# Entry
Amino acid sequence: MKNLRKYIIVAFTTGAVLASSCKKLDEYNPGATTLDVAYNNKPGFEGLINACYNDMFFFYGKVDFIGPSEMGTDLWINYGANDSGFCVYDNTLNTSTGSIKTIWGGWYSAINLCNTAITFSKTVKGYGSQTEIDTKVAEAYFWRAWANFNLVEQFGGVVLRTQSSAVEQSAVSAKRSSEKEFYDLIISDLKFACDNLPLSQSVRGRVTKKAAYAMLAKAYLQRTRLGDKEQYGKLALETAEELINNPAKYGCSLYLSDATTSGFTKVFDGKNNKNNPEFLFFQAIDAISGLNPEGYNRGRTRQYYEPDLGGRGADWGTQEKGVLYGRSNVKQYKPSSYLLTKIFDPRENTPDTRFANTFTYKFYASADKPITSQLATTYQKDASIVGKTILNTTAFYSGPDYFLPAGTTLEEQKNMTNDAGLAVFTPNWNIPTDVKKKMPMLVADPTDLFDPATNDYKLPASFPNEPSLINIFPAFKKFSSKMWVYTNQYWMGDFPIIRLGEVYLIAAEAALLSNNDQAKAAQYVNVIRKRAAITSRESEMIVTPAEVTIDFILAERARELAGEHTRWIDLKRTGKLTKAYFQSTNPSVALNFNEKKHVVRPIPQSFLDAIINSNEFGNNGY
# Structure
């Protein structure tokens, strides 16, 4: 029997993998013993199941998965030179791109761990019944499906592995499998998970039946892009409706609106983050004891979407690093004009609360900031605001909506009345020029930000008579609630991977694909649209069946799910990864887009160097 020292198979403890638990389960350290001894007993086998969770922590809340999942779409624009390969498909997207290696390695690592667990589930001892074993190994089947789903969507038909390298020698050559073969295994694995996972788990963050049904519905819907749309659309609809029609059984529900707060607002309220009935499948983060891979180094997603709060913003009183807003020195991604003004309703008095809860568009002063005549002249402001002071809003805060007992200094804790401390204002609606000039703050509305000729951010050279606001814009904030901020970089909230809100939109799209049932599609879309408004304005959000098309649902998915790691595969599924589509929505992406290769990612050079048939295997056209 092979020795474990030959393999990188680390059985992470439950405390490290499922961060929500403050105490570790019994763990088994196989050390240098043989595989059959290590994993053929219950403690060792359950340590192996724990390890299957580890790799997902390096996708959600980390930068490496933002580019592959959200960029190069209609919703976002590259901010500077960082990650330009994913954003604009230039030649920095190649076989040596760092994030490519990270996601490829992470998914294959998870697959290998899951394959090992599935192999040893057939011989493991110490369980009272086969049902107990199936309940436990169903977690490995789920995670293998999750990894293969992401792998095939990003890289296409690559190597479909069903054997563990711990028990079978890895081949020196590689053979591609078809995308349909990938989906056959993904669907089979998720069916097993649906049948065998428990309805609930004692440790928060463990996958359950609701996660399996949600993932299966998503996989069925994505499978429609390979053909058989009616068949797989019907399966996606039936699977989604299993959750929608039986919320009590699965312990899930939508947040609904009331007279003062929309249901969508409640989804991302920090008070609801750690016990959220809408989160069907999520990454659980231990905010108290830091029992996570990399400890407290979590939730850095928010820092990559920050505007220039330390430059133009600082002129008006903001700071480059703040606990509430994050750290604005990274400068990678910003919202497109299409997202801000076409996807979201560009009206101040919109009934739809999703823009306001997806973006921070008001940034407050970190110290008193007098408005000088020089500042007013530089930013072409009216002289009437000279001499006014933007008031400091920072103050010590320890609760009730903040989890660190010691508290911290946060922006937006005083001088909020009448926005007395408002320094930078970036609405997605336009304000008359004469009104803006008299507003005692930096105002950047869409007319200030976007060039009508290019539908992109204004280049300073093209608008020499205007102050450059190219790096001022609303900041993505879904994963930034003040209740879970830890530092100016780290955010310790849970990350939803599939929400019940998405399942309703899956059902709507599937209803159209299966038999063009616009009435049913509208029914599910309207549930989501109504809960985006307070109850008194729900009627304004209702759409008719005739309005509900695949394109309408695609836009609705953007309103609901922007920034939640879905957009690239949504465009792929709906046939929108095309130059023509990007020319009409986000021209900066269209410039380099090549439909013959940019629907998949390059194969990592490290993998090609490790096989003897790399020329035969190919690199996906890169």
